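User: Hello, can you help with two protein structures?

Assistant: Certainly.
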Amino acid sequence: MRYATAGAHQPQTPWLPPRWSRRQVLTAGGLAVAGAMMTRAVSAGFLRPGTGTSIASNPSSAAAASGATAASASPAPSIATTAPTPVATPTPAPTPATVTIPVPVYQQSMTLDCETAALQQGLAYYGHHVSQAELFALEGADTRLPVMGANHTVLRWGNPYTNFVGYVNGSDWSPTGYGVYWPVILRLAQTHGLPNAVGGEGYAPSTIYSALASGHPVQVWIETRFARVTLGTWTSWDGTRVRYSYAEHSVTLTGVSPTRVRVNDVLNATQYWVSKTLFEANFADFNNMAVIFR
């Protein structure tokens, strides 16, 4: 801004644009600030960045910061600022604890009877002791042999959703025997002491982990020793499409940690941990099939 000298000891009067009135001019410590138009030099003279306090300790220093000559001894006013509101730092979620369930470990008594043995483990945890032979007798084994196709594929066979398919002491590679799926196992669980058991396909892995963390063993369908083999689909005698694997196997999950699940494997009566990544890949091969014992 340009200023006109009005006297040796008189405060300077700012030059006003033609359309401004004196009511639009604010005088602070001898500095004229027109309307809201305060230059960066002037504003810098009032505040030290981040402190909310004036750095114009006397009129001359404030005027020097703005390029103006102060003729008044009045101190420049301080500009008050509002302290920022503290932002709370969120507390990280605790790492989930490792949970194990004291389910007894059994070995399957027949060559392909893994599903019945896994069921037996789940029942025993709740105090219901039933032999594998008794449970298997209720699975209505369909011992008809399959119709085979090219490249050792199965075209037609029984329906594991309704009966055990094949000979229980047969071979799953020949194949002369296979296994049974969740509806049969769930029915036996519900009629042998666990009426609140649930089962099906399409379970999210998180649902399985939550059940385990709540103390409920879970029977799942995977591949033997968590191997990955080629999958196929056959059509059952009643027209149902059946997804199958020559390494089809069933185990009981009995624990969970942030990264792993614990397995009671009836193949050779062992208990071990596997990564969730490996478990979930196998689980998906059988369309996330499970029975939750509760």
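That covers the first. Now for the second protein you mentioned:
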Amino acid sequence: MIAVRTAPTLNRTLLGVAIFIASESVFFLAIVLAYVAYRDAGLATARANLDVGRTAIFSVALFASSGTMALAARTRSRFWLAATMVLGAIFLTGQGAEYARLLSEGIGPGSALFGTTFFTLTGLHGLHVLAGLVALSALFAATQRRARAVHPVAWEAVGLYWHFVDAVWVVVFSVVYLGTIL
């Protein structure tokens, strides 16, 4: 008897998410490179005004959310999914507080080169976190209604996007915040 192996199939949903993440990675790379190119002009402002320690705390919440998302996807658990959403919301709240503080000090998107590059880079990341929270909420709602009807690929696709958002923040935090103290 001859054994016949079937070719592995490629899930179109995961392929679409992967292509989207790849395109967004190029987009973020361009913005990070622009920030780095103009960083020296605003480095003194960044050093004087960015709260690296406080932002590190909110960053830990986002980094931890990758772990809770991995647990949620592996176990199909609404508990871990909710934990991921809470950690993401903590991060966004922290970023909002940082923005409010900077704006109150006269540093905004149009105030100077630092403000423009900082708010563009971190603001776009924040929008991606918000989009991720919307996707997490949609997945949570779908599992509330009919948990068994939610395909495993939905958990995987949302998880991939969420891990991407976290990975982008590793780069942004390193370049923007840690780059001011190194």
